[in-house]
Amino acid sequence: MLKEKRLEKYIERRIDERDRMKRREKAEKVELIVDRKQVDFWCKTCKREYRSIGRSRKGINNTQWYVSRCVCGKYNIRRMYSTDPYLYLSKMLRRERVNSYYDTIDPTHEMFDIFYGGEKRL
After folding, report:
1. Which helix (H) or strand (E) holds 40?
2. Nearest CA to 96 among 40, 36, 37?
C-alpha cells in the first residue's frame, strides 16, 4: 500500500516534469523566432565585416547580445553595450566617426581655418 502511493507520486512528478520540459522547449522555439534581427558582425578569423541575421540572447543583469555564424564557420557575438569590440574593429564605423569628427569642429579648433577659412568667430 505504501509502495503504491510512492509509485503514484513518483509517476505524477515525472509527468509534471515532462510537461514542464515540453512547455519550456516550445517557449524557447517561439523566443528564437521572435528574437532574430539583421545585425552587423565582425569576424576576427577572416577579418571582415558582414551583415547577418543574429539570434538574440539575454544574460545576467538583462545584458543582451546577438550570435551569428560567419562564412568561415566561426560563431561571432555582437554585444549590445558600450564594450562591444565591433565598435572599434569595424572599418565602416571608423569612417563614420572620422567624418562626423570634422563635421563637429568648433571655432576654437586648430583645423577650423582650414575647413571654413577666414577668421575664427566665437
Report:
1. strand 36-43
2. 40
Q: Measuring CA to CA, which residue among 80, 93, 91, 77 is closest to residue 43?
A: 77
Between CA 24 and CA 20 the distance in angstroms is: 6
- pLDDT for the residue numbered 97: 84
| Local confidence band at 117 (pLDDT 50, 70, 90 cut-offs) | confident
User: Is this prediction's pTM over 0.90?
Assistant: no
**In the chain, domain spans:** 1-34, 35-103
CA distance 91 to 97: 10
Whether the CA torsion 11, 16, 19, 24 is positive or negative: it is negative
CA distances to 64, 79, 92, 93 from 48, in Å = 23, 17, 11, 13
Distance, CA of 39 to CA of 87 (rounded, Å): 13
How many Å apart are CA 69 and CA 77, to the nearest integer? 9
Split at pLDDT 50, 70, 90, the class of 17 is very high
